[in-house]
Structures are given as C-alpha cells and as structure tokens.
Amino acid sequence: MALTKEQLPQLERMCEALYTSSNADERKQAEHMLKVFSTNPEYATQCQMILQNSTSPYAQLLASSSLVRLVTDHFLPANVKTDIRGYVTNYLASHGASLMPFVVTSLVQLLCRVVKLGWFENEGHRECPQDVRKFLEQESPVHVYLGLRILCQLVAEMNTPCPGRSLTQHRKTAVSFRDTALCDIFTWAISCLASVTGAALPSAIASANASASENGGTGGRPSTPPGGVSPPSPAGNAAHAPRPNQPPLRPQARSQDEKEKMLDQTLNLALKCLSYDFVGTCLDESSEDLGTIQVPTSWRPYLEDPQTMVLFIDTYAATQPPLSNCALECLVRIASVRRSLFSGEAERTKFLSRLLMGTRDILRNQTGLAEHENYHEFCRLLGRLKTNYQLSELVGLDSYAEWISRVHEFTISSLVGWRWAQGSIFYLLGLWSRLVSSAPYLKSTSPSLLENYVPLIYQAYVTSRVESVQAVYDGSVGEDEDLLEIEDSLSDQMEALPYLCRFKYEQSAEFLCSMMDPTMAEYFNAVESLKKTMEASASGISTPPAGLLDANALKAIDLLEGRLTWFVHIISAVVRGRLSSGGSSATAEMQETVDGDLSARCFRILNLVDSTTPDHGEAAAAAAAAAAIGSPQAASAAATASAAAAAAERAASGPYSRVYNKSRQRLELALLSFFQSFRKVYIGESAMHSSRVYMRLNERLGLHDHLVVLGVMVRKVYFNLRVYRTHAEIIDQTLKLFQDLASGYMSGKQLHRLDAVHYVLCSHTESSFPFLRERGNLRSRTTFYHTLGRLLFMDDATSRFRAFVLPIHNTLCELASVPDVTLRDTTECRRRMIGLSRDLRGLAQATSSRKTYTMVYEWLYPKHTQLFLRALSIWTADTDLAHPILKLFNELALNKTQRITFDASSPGGILLFREISKVVCLYGEYVCQEAVVNAAAQAASAQANAGADIPPAPGTPEPGGGPSGGGGSSRGDVYTLRYKGIWISLMMLTRCLGGGYVNFGVFDLYGDPSLNDAVRWALRMCLSIPVGDLHGYKKLSRAHYSLLEQLCHSHPSSIINTDVETFSHLFRSLEMGLRSLEVSISSQCASALDSLAAFCFNANSSMVQSQQAAAAAAQQAAAIAQANAGSAEAAAAAAAAAAVAANGSLGIGMPSARDAEAAQLMAKHLRMNPQLVHDALKALYEIVLFEECSNQWSLSRPMLSLALLDVEAFERVQHELVSQGQGTANNPERAQRLRTCFTRLMHDVSPSLEPKNRDRFTQNLTVVRLDFQSRT
C-alpha cells in the first residue's frame, strides 16, 4: 500500500510512540503496525518518501533503519542499491547539518552497508570513498565532520562480517577495499590531522599530492577492467599511486569545539585504518595481544616517513583524553606493524629509534601521564616495543641507556603507586619479562643493563604487593581495590613474575626470604597465642586468661595472613616458572635448591595454618573408627573421641575460629595454587624424583621424596573437604587438585600406594566429609566420586569395590524400603536421593573398562535402578532431582572406550536398554504434558515482558534476546523447566541406539514395545520444541540432531512411519540444521538426509529392478519354450516357472516387507510435500557454491541421493540458482558459468548410490566449486 503525504502525520505519531512512549502496549502496537517497513522490500521506495518529506527525526530513523534491514536481509536489485547510495549521499550533503545525531548515524550505516553489499555490482559503489572525499574538500566544518564520520563507518563496515553473507564473500570485499581504497583513506586521515593541528604534512603525502598535480590525468592507477575490479596482488601490496587532480585536504575549524570534534573523528579514522584486518586473522579488538599488524607494502612510504610518527606524538602532547589516548592507541598500532614492511634494516632501525626517543621524551617530561587513560595506553605502547623487536636491536640504539633507565623509573613508580596503575602493571611486567627471556641470547657488545634494573623491579613488586595488604586493612583502600581480589590481574602478573625472579634467582630468593621469614615468625607467635585461646574456649572457660588474644590481635593475624598469601602466590608462580627456565646443569641444580628453600616455607605455613583450624570432622571420624574396633576399649575410645569432636565443634563456631575468616580462606586458596605448581614440576610423569628440591625439603621438614609430599597433599585435601564445607571455591579447588593428582598415570599410581587414600576409600560418607551435606556443593559430589572411582578402579579388585559401595548400598536399601508417600514428603529422603544420583554418576564416569563397568552395572541392576525409577516418577517435576537421575542413566548408556561389552549369552544390553526406555518414556510423558508446556511458556513470557526494552527499530532483535524476544532469565527458566531434561533424555536414547551393545531386532521379534515407546516419546519431545528455541540452545540442538541422525541411519522406518505433518516437521528441521554455524550439526543433518534419501531410493530401485528382471526372464523363458515345444501351454508353464525362479534368485537384493512399506510411505509423504526435497537441495547447493563451508564432503553425500530421489526437484533447483541465485540474477555471465558448472557436475555420474559413483560425484563437486568461486 502506497503511503501518501496525508498519512504522513499519522505515521510520525506512531514513530514517536514507538521510540518515546513509556506505555509498553502502545510501543508494541506501534511496532506491529510499522514492522512492514523493515520486512517487505516493496516498501523501500516508501522509506525514501518518508526521508524526503518528513521532518520528524523518529520517522527519519524508522525509514533509515528499515532500509538497513531491507538491504541486509533481502535481495535488492543492483539498480535499487545504486539509487539508495546516490540518494543517501545527496541527502546527507544537503540535510546533514540539520539532522539529529541518531538519524545521521543510521543514514551513515545505511550508506556504508549498501556500498559493501554492492561493492562488486557497480563501479559507482567502489568510487564511494572518492565521492565522500568531496565532503572533506568543503570549507564547512560540518561537511568535513560528516565526511570523516562516513569514512570511519565505511572502514568499520568493511572490516566486520555482514549478517547473511559467508566469510568468503566478506573477505573478498574486504581485500578489494584494502587494495583500492584503504591506503587513500589513511592518507586523508593523516592530511586532515596535520591540517587541524597545524603540523607539517608528512613528506610522502606532500610529494604524492605534488606529483598528482603535475601529472594531471596520467598519474592515476591503471584503469579497472570491465566487469570487475583489478585483481589484487598476492599480499595486497600493489604499489599505491595517488588519484589525479585532487586538491590537498586542508580542513579548518572555526572554534575549539569544532576542532575537537574534527580531531576526534580524524583520530578515530586513522585508528580504524590501522586496526583493519589486513590478512583475515579476525583479531579481537578487545584482546590485549594484538599480534603483528600485516600492513600492505603500499603503506611503506607513509609509515617510514618520520613526520607520521611525530604527528601522532605531537597530537598526544597537545590534547587531553579521550583524544590523547586515541593518539597513543594509534601509536600502539604503528609500533606493531610487521618487520618486513620496511625497505631495509636501516629504515627499520630509524623507525625503532624514533619510537624509542618518542617514548623516552614522554617519560622524561611526564607528558600527559597524569591522566589515567593516557597512562594505561602508554603502558601498552611500552609493552609492544619488545613484542615486535629484538633485544639486540634495542640495545644497539644510542638512546637505549637513557630509555631503559626511564622505563625502570616509570615501572618502579607504577609499582609503588599500585592504586593508580593496577590495571597497567601487566604490560610493564610483560615488557620486562620479555626483555629478560631474551637476555641469554643477546650477542651484542653493548650492555643490556638488565642486571642493574630487573632485581630492583622484582623487589619493588614484592614490597608493593605486601604493603598493599596494610593499606586494605587500614581502610585507606576499599575492598574492591584489594589486589588479591582482582583474580584476572593477579593471574596475568604471576605469568610474568617468574622471569624476573629467576633472572638473578639467588639474589631474588634471598630478598623474598628476608621479607618472608620475619612475617612467618610473627605469625608463629600469633598462632601459638591463638591456639591457647582456642583451647581455653574449647574447655568451656567463658573469660580467656590474661595475655591471650583480643580483637586487635585477631586483626593483626588477618594482616599477617594477607602478607603470607602474597608470598605463597609469588612462590607458586616462581616454582611453576621452572618448567620454562633453561640453563646448564649447574644452574638447574642451583634453581632446584632454591625451589626447595622456598617450597619448604610454604609447607611450614601449611602446618601453621592447619594447627589453628579445629577439625571436628577428624574427631568425629576418630569416634566412628573407635566404635568399629572390636576391642574392650572401643566404648571408652568412642566416648573420648566424641567428646573431642564436640569440643572441636564449639571451637570451630566460636569467636576465635579462623575457618570462616576471609584472610584465612584466601591463604588456603594460595596454598592450593602452590600445590598445583609443585605437582606440575616435581610430581608426576615428568618430575625428577631425585631432584635437589627434595634434598632441601628433607633437610628442613623431613619430606625426603615425592611420595611423602603426596601424602601431605592428600592430607590437605582431606582436611579441606572436612573443614571448609561451606566455602565453595576452596572445595572446588581442593577437588581439582585431588582430581589432577589422580588423573596422571604415574601420580595416580603413587597416590594409590598411600594409606591416607585407602582410608578415604573406606570412609567416604557424609559423616567423614561434611561438605557432602551442603546444598552448594552438589556439583562437587560428582567430581569427588569420580576421583575416588579412578583410584578405586586402578586395581580392579572386586572385594575393594564391594567394601567401597557398601555404605551407598545400605543407604539405597534403606530408601527402597520407604513407602512412596513418605519418600515424597520427606525432605531428607529427597536430599539423599539427589546426592546419591550425583555420587553414582561420578562413580560411573570413572569406569573405563569392561570389568569396572560390569561391576557397577551388576551392582545397580535390577535392585537399585528400580529405586531411581520410583524417585523419578515421584519427583519428575523437581528439576533438582530429576536432572541428576537423568544424567546418571545418561552416563550408564555411554559406551566410551567400549566399556559396555556383555557376554554373547548375556541379555545385559537388552536389559539396560529397557531401563533406559522406561526413563525416557517416564520423563517424556511428563514433559510433554500440556500443563508443563504452558507453564514453561508462561514463565518465559512473564520474564520477557518484565525485562523488555524499547526496540531500536521495528523488527530489530533485542540485545541478548532469544527466540521469544526475552532476556537471558526467561530463557534460563524455560531451559531448566523443560529443555535441560529433554536434551539429556534425547542424548541418553542416542547413546543407546549408537552404542553397539543392544540387538534391537529382538524387540520386534518378541513383541517388546520398549524401542517403539522410547522412540515415540523422544519424537514427541522433539516436536514439542519451538523451532526458534531449538536453535537457541546449543546442547538441546546437538542432542536433537544427534538423535535424528542415529534414527535415520539405523531406524529410518521410525521416522517415516509417522504422520505426514510429523515427517515434514522433522525433515524441515534437518534442512534448517544444514545452515547451522556449528559444523558438527550441519554434518549430522546432512548425514540424516542422506540416510533417508538413500533408504527410499535403494528400496524403490531394488523393487523396480527385481520386477524388471522377473518380467524379462519370464518373456525370455516363454520365447524359448515356444520355440522348442511349439505349444502355447508349455510356453506359459515355462514362463511361469522362469518368473518364479527369477523372483527367488533376486530375492537377495529385495528389501524386507517392512522396509518396502516404509519406502512407499516416504514416497507418499514426499508427493504430498514436493517442496521438502527441493528446499533441502537448494539449501545444500547454496551453502556449497556460495558460502564458506568446511564440511563440503559431508554436505556432498545427500546432494546426490536427494537428486536421484527427486530428479524433477533437482532440475528446478538448478534453474532457480541459475536465474535467481546470489549474484546471477543480474549477471548473465555468472549465470552461464553456473549453468556450465551444473552440466560438469553430473558428468560420468550414473543414477546409483554405489560408493564409487558417490566418490565421483564428490570429486566433480569439488572441482566445480573451486572453479566457480575462483572466477566470481
């Protein structure tokens, strides 16, 4: 419907309501009415009419944003794109000064999007940068500013993949833009920057302008051949020539405000040019590691020009943030250009010298470093110097000595002023660590001077970190600024610190010990006083004796523990750095000795820490152990141990307990980090058991070998799991250490020899490990029992397994005896069922062999599996319990490492599947109930409405919204209520179907409905998922398509023997899955379609061939009989006999009656929905021919089978792609090339699905695809 000028005021009111109304219903109604502008390509002219006639900024925003959507999401003819580009350019030139900023932004985006999408369609699009340059030549600052904005957006648009276009198409456009326009735009940015700041123009640009003026029309680059752009050089390094007859750019600002706005856009433009993805590496701009910038060779004269760097340095010095730090960021990029860009060693040395002197002068004068933004970017700039250049090159420069001295002073001041520079220390430490790591390879005669500065920097770092603890506890620094709380920054710094410490290792270790030893001594005295106080508290004394700890003393302990935490973190990092340190054998021995000295101090801290932590869990375990002894002293021993447990419990909850203290918990985490570092270096497969580190540990603490140290670690694990039961992070890190120790082959074997480990295997219940009772540790239960299972199954002893599972067995039997009503209403029963499900899943994960899996399976089935089925039927709606039970059975169904292998006479596989089938059917019946589906939908809708925001434009998806348009919380609710259980159930069935341990033919043979029921409910669960949600949740999508692939491959009749709506829905979902960005899903969908098509084609072909062979044999037999006998009766009898013989002989290749019926039903489904095969084939050919696909082989398999299944659909697809495909509708040459490719595709390919014929088709497809993409 055409929009008239009379209707324009009404539309403007609707647009204003859409963007400004506070009424959600009014906004929703306006969006519904206006959505057509962004979804219907016929409304493109209406959008132009709105821009031409409306003065409302909201109507202009609607028109421009809708055009962006139309251009992006729909195919528009080339002439329409050309008209839009010309119209928008003229519109901005004539109306840009009066438009609202958000309208200008939208129009600029539209212009740049049109130029990018039509880059190869029209020469005018490729001339857009030159058209925009005319804005820069104007005297009006508004037009200059607008031109700079357009160029900034154009560079960003060309550097960003566009929705709906393949990566190949994006890179092709980006490379062409890089080779034809980007260098020009960069020189324009430099020229504008020089003009605005009043600086001298770089001589390379000035001479190029002069040459262009002198040469007139002969100085330009070669003309572009018809039909496309000139081919780029292999590395994008074609020689750059200036455009002819172009006046120099000399924009002038009339006010300070205009000058700052021009500077902002000019610097942003230069930064975007330097940040361009030149070679397709897709660098993440948010990443701190920029790597090397692969600038084309055509940029060489401008980057080698000394004035270019001087221009950015002077701009930095003359401006304030954000302009100054943007100039510094440009310098960071310039410092990162590839080394091979320069014409020779001399030019590279001059470039580095200018960079070094520039940073030296900034440091000497402290230019701009009082601003935090400048400070941070300057640290990044310093960090880039060693990344791109060798130490020998730096040392050889005359300014190096002063520069390294200035950088040393700057680093020291940064470390001391850690409150100011805590986010920038990482770059400085990275610089010094790279300098140090290069020192052993330095062959220059000039001194590096690192030995003078590195130890001082290391000492300043240690001192400042320790002093920061005092600042935090004094209250002069907030807890959010506590350096120990900033984990990312802490881990980054610990990566660089070992290089500084090990540079002068003995000197550094001596300094560390000189600071650490007094702190440890002071802590030891405080600990002794604390122990006396705790003993008094445990004995029931209400008032502690005089001289014991008060509140100030407890704070002093907090301070000491904070300092010790830093020491332990530093030692942990230094010990871990042994893996990357080299040197001679003498140096290695020295480093191991020092490692032993430092490690001994950490082990001493461990002893001090544990001595002040009351372990009521240990006392309770002692009581239980005493009660189990059959001696006469058992009762008294148990009573004594129980009393000790009660006293320890009182002390742990008393005012002097350190368990819940933050400083103690951070110290515990640091000790766990140290154990991990020590394990990696000195325990395990690559450890040196005769290392000197153990000699020093033996001298100091009596830890004479790795086995004793392992015992210490296991006791620490045991201790933490009992004591810190409510601290989730300590529990997680402790279990990770335990798991890492058990996962290694050698360390696991050594662990298995320890008595402490055997004790844990004998007493692993909640009474021994209280953390198992805590709700926040439910996930940790699986990890805990997985690790115990690894240790348990190392010797495959049946007796030990029985002893291990006995407590679990007793608990299961106890719960099995509870009636359903009591089981449902008792909170304790629910809690225990959740824990047992997670425990058994971890135990099942640890089974990696046939023997271990069989032990677990035979213990669980059939007695205990019935309990879990009962629990699932009672608590199906309780996701906290249902999901762990589903995951338990999902783990039991997984045949990893062929662990599920039953004897030939064993029905184990069939019985296991029957249990899995019961679980799938039980959960499927619940989750597919209408009430459950509606409840999940209502929860999602409620969350979506609560968190809805005003849409930026009609039809534009909301940030973070899912298929339903809501935010993450609504998606999370739906996922928890339905989708999580569904994907676990689907994956469970998939694992059974593909596990290879079930003979599924038995179920039909004996009339067992288990298979059919499980498949039926699984498909019902699949059908209950909206298509948008299916592709919005990765785990759900993977499980869905894995099941369909398995069913289509092994049980195609289960898919085909459904009603036509169900079959069409599943077929459509496979077609959609082909376009998934996940290669695995795309390949699975292709395999599923191939299996279905091949099943139907082979069945139909076999039946047709058998019928034809039988008829031919009958005719031949009749002719022979008539010729020999001469009687018609004899001939007829012979023909009948021949037909019977033919049918019998060809029966080997005939499909079964069930398969034949399924094939006929599938043919019927396809006749009722002829678009199914057509759309699947079209999707496949569009992906393979027009997009970047890494799974071409997988996608090629269904292309042949579907084409043979429906020849007519294949011919229609060819015609549509040739006449209406991407880039062929208005390009006859490209269309003819595609038509030729289709002819070559089927060359020498017969109508069969034999392996050789399939391979021939795949080879043809590969050749055709490469040829088509290389010439378009």
UniProtKB/TrEMBL annotation:
Give the UniProt entry's GO cellular component terms. cytoplasm; nuclear pore
- Descriptive protein name: Importin N-terminal domain-containing protein
Domain of life the protein comes from? Eukaryota
Instruction: State if Cytoplasm is listed as a keyword.
Output: yes
Principal localisation:
cytoplasm
Decide whether keyword tRNA-binding is in the record.
no
Which keywords label this protein? Cytoplasm, Nucleus, Protein transport, Transport
Q: Where is the Importin N-terminal domain?
A: 30-94
Q: Where is the composition biased (Pro residues)?
A: 223-234
Localization per Swiss-Prot or TrEMBL: Cytoplasm; Nucleus
**InterPro entries assigned to the protein according to its UniProt record, in alphabetical order:** ARM-like, ARM-type_fold, Importin-beta_N, TPR_XPO7/RBP17, XPO4/7-like
Could you tell me one molecular function GO term of this UniProt entry?
small GTPase binding
**Biased composition, Gly residues: where in the chain?**
958-969
* Species annotation: Pycnococcus provasolii
Gene3D superfamilies xrefs: Leucine-rich Repeat Variant
The family line of this record is: Belongs to the exportin family.
- Start and end residues of each stretch annotated as Disordered: 210-261, 947-969
Q: Which PANTHER family match?
A: EXPORTIN 4,7-RELATED (PTHR12596), EXPORTIN-7 ISOFORM X1 (PTHR12596:SF2)
